[in-house]
């Protein structure tokens, strides 16, 4: 930062130089022209533009998942959306844009808690081929209610050499399941015929130690 010495008290703009005063001293700063345009067009910023597109795409997918869960869960931890973005970005940035490795996204998100409840839910839920498998290894005091939210991720579109996606699921289906204490030590297969671009979030409610708890997990 340059300090201007003059018998004239400069304050304001002269061409590309901005003059201003702090504590009785005059300083001058030069504005850098067209930096934003340079980032958008200069070949030296190609990697920056690519990372920005990857981040936008990861944010769109993460927001779609978060909003789907938030619509039916009692309370989510807002920090979980940032965790979603991070885990999805780890996959997206390794692939050519527009060619999404959905299997790797599912693997990265598997078991992620969206409300950061650190205990394990009474019902285990996992993917089995294109269906879900529910296992009840814990004794239940009463019925456990489960909502399965099945969302189809936004379609990736290409506009002016940029890949973009909406921040809402294209479609959301809900499956309600009730597990009773009599289902202890049983495995229940839920035929869903899931597609590669679909994400499942399970919202599980159950009475534990006389407290009604809710677990929100990405399956």
Can you describe this structure?
The structure is a single chain. The protein is 25% helix and 35% strand. The protein is built from 4 helices and 13 strands. It is of the alpha+beta class and 219 residues long. The chain is elongated and about 80 Å long. A hairpin with a 2-residue loop joins strand 5 (123-128) and strand 6 (131-136). Strands 1-4-3-2 form a 4-stranded antiparallel β-sheet, with no helix packed on it. A 4-stranded antiparallel β-sheet has the order 10-7-12-13. The protein has 2 domains: 1-31, no CATH class; 39-218, no CATH class. The longest helix has 25 residues, at 46-70.
Write the layout of secondary structure elements.
Blueprint: E1 2-3, E2 12-14, E3 17-22, E4 25-30, H1 35-41, H2 46-70, H3 79-92, H4 102-109, E5 123-128, E6 131-136, E7 144-152, E8 157-159, E9 162-164, E10 171-179, E11 187-190, E12 198-208, E13 211-218
Antiparallel strand pairs: 1-4, 2-3, 3-4, 5-6, 6-11, 7-10, 7-12, 8-9, 12-13
Helix pairs in contact: 2-3, 3-4
Low-confidence stretches are none
Radius of gyration based on Cα positions: 26 Å
What is the number of E strands?
A: 13
The total of helices stands at 4
Sum up the overall morphology in one term: elongated
Q: Calculate the terminal CA-CA distance, rounded to whole Å.
A: 53 Å
List the strand order in the largest sheet. 1-4-3-2
Helix-strand makeup class: alpha+beta
Strand content: 25-35%
Tally of separate domains: 2
Mean pLDDT: 84
Q: What's the helical proportion of residues?
A: 10-25%
Main β sheet profile: 4 strands, antiparallel
Q: How would you spell out the order of helices and strands?
A: EEEEHHHHEEEEEEEEE
């Amino acid at each position: 930062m340059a300090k201007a010495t003059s018998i004239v008290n400069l304050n304001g703009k002269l061409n590309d130089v901005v003059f201003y005063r702090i504590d009785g001293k005059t300083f001058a700063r030069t504005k850098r022209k067209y930096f934003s345009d340079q980032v958008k067009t200069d070949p030296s910023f190609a990697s920056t533009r690519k990372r920005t597109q990857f981040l936008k795409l990861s944010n769109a997918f993460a927001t779609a998942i978060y909003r789907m869960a938030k619509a039916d869960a009692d309370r989510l931890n807002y920090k979980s959306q940032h965790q979603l973005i991070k885990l999805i970005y780890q996959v997206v940035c390794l692939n050519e844009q527009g060619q999404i490795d959905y299997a790797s996204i599912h693997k990265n998100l598997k078991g992620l808690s969206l409300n950061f409840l650190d205990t394990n839910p009474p019902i285990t839920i996992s993917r089995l081929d294109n269906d879900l498998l529910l296992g009840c290894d814990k004794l239940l005091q009463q019925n456990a209610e489960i909502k399965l939210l099945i969302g189809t991720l936004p379609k990736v579109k290409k506009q002016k050499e940029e890949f973009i996606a909406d921040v809402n699921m294209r479609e959301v289906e809900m499956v309600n399941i009730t597990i009773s204490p009599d289902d202890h030590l049983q495995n229940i297969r839920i035929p869903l015929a899931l597609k590669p671009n679909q994400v499942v979030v399970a919202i599980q409610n159950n009475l534990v130690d006389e407290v009604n708890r809710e677990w929100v997990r990405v399956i």
